[in-house]
Amino acid sequence: MKILLVYPNAKKEIIAWGDKGAIAEPIALEYIGAIGRDCGHEVKLLDLRLHNDDLDTTVEQFQPDMVGVTGYSMHVLRCLEICRIVKRIRPECLTVAGGHHATLEAVDFFEPEIDLVVIGEGTGPFRSILGCLEQGKRVEGIPAVWSRIDGEFVLGGAQAEFDINLIPQPDRTLVPDDRADYFIDWMKPIALLRTTVGCPYRCSFCALWRIMDGQYYKREVDLVVEELKQVEEKNVFIVDDEPFVNSKRMMLLAQEIEKAGIEKNFFSYCRIDSLLKDMDLMRYWAGIGLKRLLIGVETIFDYELADYNKRQERTQIVEGLQAAKSAGISLFCNFIIHPRYTHKEFEEVIRFIRENEVDYPSFTIWTPIPGTNNNYEDVIQRQANGRPNWDYFDLQHPVTETTLPKEEFMEQFENLYQVFASNYLQAESPMTVTAMNEKHVAMGDPSVRLAMKVLGMIATDKHG
């Protein structure tokens, strides 16, 4: 069987700078590709962020029997478009959708161009799908898989019990010619590494912990080290939702990496309270190559920290920023800009970043993303069918009413990047040069969760 896995590109009609901010390897599809190859099938991975005009040609030449797509909320309509194109060229081709949005809002994929929707962790269900096809059986009754049966989508049952150590290593050989082009500003080329899945915290703006039903799964340290040994890239982004929550495990991992003689430049997400909990741990990681942390500051206002259930205060944030600097760790900090902000809040955010000398600030607009218990009643961007227009759920557009006139709000939002343009230039970000030329400074594809929790990544629907 021929399997084509497609990672979608951003719609430039919505976000002009598209995927220029950061492009990290499509690790989710590399996991799926590993399953396909392990089952003896021919697998091809097409990353449309790097090859945005190659879909039709690839389908015509490769002649896939199955096409799989994944993505975040901002990719939903593009994924459907991809599958429509596939069906036009190869009507008999089986189309499968999965990923964060499919897990939280599968209904958006209940369309004629989609045959199967996978929810939750996808490698197990995908293996089961391939098993049915190999035996010539109808694909139905598979846990965590919605199958279109007689025109209606039917769920095959609840997700099976998850064992993170049974997940295969991602097949990084699927995109050999693209690997040199994956980057997060100066970290190029960069690879992604996952050591845990899930998050023990319950931030109201984040959906990641809901995807894993609030559980926190940890890979065995020796498995992580063995995978890391095979990563050729010098730069590695640890895309865990919250890696440093378990200090003992992360110290053991650092020691084993050092013992194995692995030399990498590491980039990782970290909460402020995790950072402050064990500075010896952070200094140890800095010693083995941790160059920067992605800190979800989210907000500097205590009332919003409480609303977001962030479980920290502004004073802790300031303390954490200072502590990171003392350890020689660069900070990539994300700030959530709420649609209710006025000039006063924008000015205070700018003042805070300057006073605390934040190395690399990034900004996302508060959005009622799927899985955050926020209903969509206040969403003003709609599709013809009444559902939210997911194209605008890129965290760079307000999808609810703003207190300031919308144009004025966006001017203030874009001004944040102008104010801190020198920070991006110092970070040697390719995005900055391109965006400056286009007179628009902004972060790249938030799917790299991941770069804002990267990325391809990461990924992930999470603000920071």
Detailed description of the structure:
The protein folds into two domains: 2-155, Rossmann fold, CATH 3.40.50.2300; 178-455, tm_1862 like domain (pyruvate-formate lyase- activating enzyme, Alpha-Beta Horseshoe), CATH 3.80.30.20. The chain contains 17 helices and 19 strands. The chain has helices at residues 27-38, 55-62, 76-89, 100-104, 123-134, 208-211, 221-229, 247-259, 272-277, 279-287, 302-307, 314-326, 343-355, 406-419, 421-426, 430-437, 450-453, and strands at 2-7, 22-23, 42-47, 66-70, 94-98, 116-118, 145-149, 152-155, 183-184, 190-193, 196-198, 216-218, 235-238, 265-270, 290-298, 330-337, 360-365, 448-449, 454-455. The strands form five sheets. Strands 3-1-4-5-6-7-8 form a seven-stranded mixed beta sheet, sandwiched between helices. It has a six-stranded parallel beta sheet with strand order 10-13-14-15-16-17. A hairpin with a 2-residue loop joins β7 (145-149) and β8. α1 (27-38) packs parallel to α5 (123-134), α2 (55-62) packs across α3 (76-89) and α7 (221-229) packs parallel to α8 (247-259). The longest helix is centred in the first third of the chain and has 14 residues, at 76-89. Mean pLDDT is 88; it is low at 429-464.
